[in-house]
Design a protein that fits this description.
Strand content: 5-15%
Radius of gyration: 27 Å
Number of helices: 22
Structural class: alpha/beta
Largest sheet: 6 strands, parallel
Number of strands: 14
Helix content: 40-55%
């Protein structure tokens, strides 16, 4: 990003030639020589107990690494690495041999190799080293660097193991681990949560994007849309051409292996009729893929369970009646969390927003509790009142202090709410917060137990370590061994799933005042 901005702001930078073979050769030679050599000894120095305890131990807190681990360092270390990697680039600037290819190629090489070494699964095929044996000295593998994170005193090299061979710090089990990693079967999860992208820039808020953004609740930033516009456009084109579900996150909880998969589609695409079939095809392929891997439960997140798209997931059960995997939409836990978010002693609640399965069952549960339901929207009144046995009232004012809201709540309606109103969403998308004198609950969600591993990034708009109920529901079905689908017009036992969530350590989210 810095170089992209500099190209247009630094005087003369836009005159840089696209290609200069001399500069490319200089960068390669300087990296293989001074950079790799200096990094090796700098890295060994960081493992001295004085520097390790003060600096490098932060990076080694990740024993089981992932790509984002590659950039988790104290600030002082970042400065050191920046100075090292600047050697080839400054050299070609001062010698007048610089080019766009040399700059972009070298920076891309560093980022790619850094992420490769921390991805924690072996991707370099055996035939590469069979045909080119010398590569083992100038190209490391993920298994090579993983040993450094588990053994600590071996495999110090940056990207070229040559210096570990020269100075005798090569881990003796490197080759054996590499062979085993290639033959090791891929881990099959017990539960999968299937979500999707929301906006074009939401990719940067995932853990495979920017760590600083992924660790905070999602907010659309104008500077991301402007500065990263070329990269965002390229990614959108890639999705359009090569649309394939990918694994976003891997977690472990109570001996349960859990993964989050992402459908590479944006929220707006779910409202386009032409996209219905392509989206359903991707979701169905993901379900069948999970079935083949032995996954027990698959939960549908965000609009992957939309009524207009697939009848709350019922479509896939109809197409595949012999599915062993259980498809869960999480409606029961959503209703349970909403009911427990309403303050005790409440006698009247106002409903507003696009009606959904969660909205209907929440309204029904509130009627059974004797709470008066009202709405000021005539269309919603007509749709719901019949199903609720005439227990819904049509209100002509906005004086209610508890509002259950979904998609479709307008700015004008929010502004008419009385001071101190509590807005409780029943949708998977939160309303825009327009009032500072009112209270806004999060979308239905709960805080995860401390024993839930590898939850470092935020799930969309939720705070850190909070999980949407649609995600939690699949986990609970897997933990409890409930051998039933929860999709279409069916809903699981609301009290039973609420009690199970508390027993497994999930806790309600407290509203911030």
């Amino acid at each position: 990003m810095i170089f992209y901005i500099s190209y247009f702001t630094v005087p003369g930078a836009n005159l840089m030639p696209f290609w200069n073979p001399n500069g490319v050769v200089i960068v390669i030679l300087l990296h293989m020589g001074p950079v790799e050599f200096l990094y090796y000894w700098f890295h060994r120095a960081l493992h001295h107990h004085y520097l390790y305890s003060r600096y490098h131990s932060h990076h080694h807190s990740s024993i089981v690494t992932e790509p984002i681990t590659s950039v988790i360092h104290p600030f002082a270390e970042h400065i050191g690495y920046f100075l090292l990697f600047a050697i080839p680039l400054l050299t070609i600037i001062f010698t007048g041999t610089n080019s766009i290819v040399a700059f972009a190629g070298y920076i891309s090489y560093i980022d790619f190799m850094n992420n490769l070494g921390h991805c924690n699964f072996e991707v370099v095929p055996k035939w590469v080293f069979s045909i080119f044996p010398f590569l083992k000295y100038i190209m490391y593998t993920p298994s090579f660097h993983s040993l450094h994170h588990t053994q600590f005193r071996t495999n110090y090299s940056l990207f070229m193991p040559l210096y570990d061979y020269v100075y005798g710090t090569m881990d003796k089990s490197s080759d054996v681990l590499y062979e085993k990693s290639l033959t090791r079967p891929e881990e099959s999860p017990d539960v999968v949560h299937l979500t999707h992208l929301t906006t074009p820039d939401s990719i940067y808020h995932l853990r495979l994007g920017f760590a600083s953004l992924a660790s905070k609740p999602y907010i659309s930033n104008w500077y991301l849309r402007v500065i990263l516009c070329p990269m965002t456009f390229a990614y959108m084109m890639l999705i359009w051409i090569w649309s394939r579900t990918f694994v976003l996150e891997r977690n472990h909880f109570n001996k349960l292996t859990f993964q989050t998969w992402v459908i590479p589609k944006y929220r707006i695409q779910y409202f386009l009729k032409l996209q219905n079939e392509p989206i359903n095809r991707l979701i169905e392929e993901a379900i069948l893929d999970a079935e083949e891997r032995g996954v027990k439960v698959l939960s549908l997140g965000l609009l992957n369970q939309g009524e207009e798209v697939n009848m709350n997931g019922e479509l896939y059960i109809q197409r595949n009646p012999n599915l062993k995997i259980k498809v869960v939409d999480g409606s029961s836990l959503a209703v349970a969390v909403i009911l427990n978010s309403i303050p005790k002693g409440t006698t009247q609640v106002l409903f507003r927003g696009k009606l959904s399965k969660v909205a209907y069952f929440t309204a029904l549960a509130l009627c059974q509790k004797g709470i008066q339901l009202t709405t000021f929207h005539e269309e919603e009144y007509k749709k719901m009142n019949t199903k609720l046995g005439g227990k819904l009232a049509l209100s002509k004012n906005y004086a209610h202090k508890i509002w259950l809201v979904g998609d479709g709540l307008t700015k004008e309606e929010q502004l008419r709410a009385p001071e101190g109103t509590l807005f409780i969403p029943f949708s998977q998308f939160p309303p825009k917060k327009l009032r500072k004198d009112c209270f806004y609950h999060t979308i239905p969600a709960m805080m995860s137990p401390k024993s839930f591993e590898n939850i470092d990034s935020c799930e969309n708009w939720l705070p850190r370590r909070a999980m949407s109920v649609w995600r939690i529901a699949g986990i609970l079905h897997g933990l409890e061994g409930w051998n039933v689908h929860e999709c279409g017009h069916t809903i699981f036992d609301i009290e039973k799933i609420w009690e199970a969530s508390l027993q497994h350590g999930f806790r309600p989210l407290m509203i911030s005042s």
